[in-house]
Design goal:
Elements lengths: L1 H10 L2 E2 H8 L3 H13 L3 E8 L4 E8 L4 E8 L3 E7 L5 E8 L5 H22 L3 E9 L3 E2 L4 E2 L13 H9 L3 E5 H12 L8 E6 L3 E7 L2 E2 L30 H5 L1 H5 L8 H9 L3 H25 L3 E5 L3 H5 L2 H9 L4 H4 L3 E4 L6 H16 L1 H9 L1
Parallel strand pairs: 4-7, 7-10, 11-14, 14-15
Antiparallel strand pairs: 1-3, 2-3, 4-5, 5-6, 8-9, 11-12, 12-13
The structure holds zinc ion.
The site of zinc ion (ZN) has 6 residues, from loops.
């Protein structure tokens, strides 16, 4: 079943005959399995007129009429909830400013009624909820679904987030590092659909990364794979929350950039000063781009992706200068590989992490549909 769902995800609309060609199962087996998936409300048949002969063909696609997925982005300064269907369409999105809220209790006081409200609206409209995903600042202990010691997120150390969400809302729940959910959003619903090797970089209050290699998200031994914000960029630089010195995050995140500029305290102010061509602001920008250039070269050499995606709250500031950064990065790469590198903005803007949190459930559905649906029934 997983192979069938993946085939349909890749091509969106596929006929049974095409599935037989792609997957190599007999047409009888394909017919039985797709029948079952249609009964379950996962797939539906759509009629399409095929090619120049004008013959009618029955195409299979995901059914957007029964299931909904809820995605949460539990951020340091903001919270977002999205509702998605099985086609990856964002049906609803709600955001809240969470600045000044300390710790899980205060946080849940705001989000519990919001999520409960969205959940009951979905159910009242007759839909079923496949599950709930959440993106959070990592690192995470995946076995227990516990946050470890997220930097700049006081009160959340050792917090059993997955269990708390499950208990509160009674849904199948998956959690992951917010940078990794952002990579999942690309992999399942965005530009990563046709790209097997990609690195997604989120630039904001911190710098996070998610690595997709051969189509799979890579976690590493400690769940730290792709933590590109913690690559050493300044050898004897400032202490970082991770224990290292001079990480990219200490100089390239929002606080890292503002810490190198004395002319103001927000990114918007810095942007203004750059427009006015104030020398200190221009120097700060030039250093920021230099750090990014080095980081992107390292990312490219370490992970060898086809595509590097950049997003997060800092992206709008940096996007104007990418035209300059890209050739500088390329000049430092292997000659035969440099022209193949693509650097693109992430697909879902600020909703990237919440969409990716929903994508965790979609990925689970594609990998183990029967298990997910039986967990739902419990
Ligand atoms: Zn660090």
């Amino acid at each position: 079943m997983s192979e069938i769902l993946k085939g349909i995800w890749r091509y969106q609309q596929v006929s049974r005959v095409e599935l037989v060609d792609q997957i190599g199962l007999t047409s009888g087996t394909i017919t039985n399995l797709t029948h079952e998936l249609i009964q379950l409300g996962i797939l539906r048949e759509n009629e399409a007129i095929s090619g120049n002969v004008g013959r009618r063909r029955v195409m299979l696609g995901f059914d957007p009429r029964f299931y909904r997925i809820i995605g949460l982005d539990i951020g340091r300064s903001s919270f977002e909830i999205v509702v998605m269907d099985l086609n990856g369409t964002i049906l609803q999105s709600i955001e809240r400013d969470m600045n000044g809220l300390q710790g899980p209790d205060a946080y849940f006081e705001v989000i519990t009624p919001l999520v409960a409200g969205v959940k009951s609206d979905i159910e009242a409209a007759g839909y079923k909820i496949l599950g709930l995903g959440a993106g959070v600042p990592g690192p995470i202990d995946y076995d227990s679904g516990t946050l470890l010691a997220p930097p700049n997120f006081p009160g959340w150390s050792n917090y059993p987030l997955q269990k708390m969400l499950e208990d509160q809302f009674g849904l199948v729940t998956l959690i992951d590092d917010d940078a990794r959910t952002s990579a999942m959003a690309e992999r399942w619903y965005g530009l990563g659909k046709n790209v097997n090797n990609l690195v997604s970089v989120t630039l904001g209050m911190g710098i996070g990364g998610g690595v997709v290699t051969e189509g799979k998200i890579v976690r590493g031994t400690n769940g730290l794979c792709g933590q590109v914000g913690h690559m050493t960029i300044v050898l004897d630089g400032k202490m970082c929350g991770c224990g290292n010195r001079g990480c990219w995050e200490t100089v390239g995140s929002i606080p890292g950039i503002l810490g190198r500029w004395s002319g103001g305290s927000t990114i918007e102010e810095l942007q203004g000063a750059i427009k006015r061509r104030e020398p200190e602001a221009l120097r700060c920008l030039e250093d920021t781009l230099g750090f990014m250039e080095a980081a992107l070269v390292n990312i490219q050499n370490l992970y060898d992706p086809e595509l590097i995606l950049l997003g997060g709250r800092l992206y709008p500031l940096l996007s104007d200068y990418l035209v300059q950064v890209k050739p500088r990065v390329q000049s430092r790469l292997y000659a035969f590989a440099k022209d193949r590198l693509r650097i693109e903005p992430s697909t879902f803007g600020n909703s990237q992490s919440a969409v990716g949190a929903a994508a965790l459930l979609f990925g689970f559905l594609l990998a183990e549909p029967v298990r997910l649906l039986s967990l739902r029934e419990k």
